[in-house]
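Predict structure. Chain length: 62.
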Amino acid sequence: MQFLVHSKTIAELEYDGETCLLRVLYKDGRVRSVPDVVPTLMMKILARVPVEKSPYLMQRAI
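Prediction complete.
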């Protein structure tokens, strides 16, 4: 799942639920991978992203 993020530094979050791997794409082009991110933690991270700014969450809400 990919989530666009509107912040000063992070451009996109990509989460693979099968491997529990979170990829963070920064606006300056850097990419970081964080292993072993449980789905509940991912939902807490996404809860901080306003719904109206997240196309994925907005589609799910509708």
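Summary: Helices lie at 39-47, 55-61.
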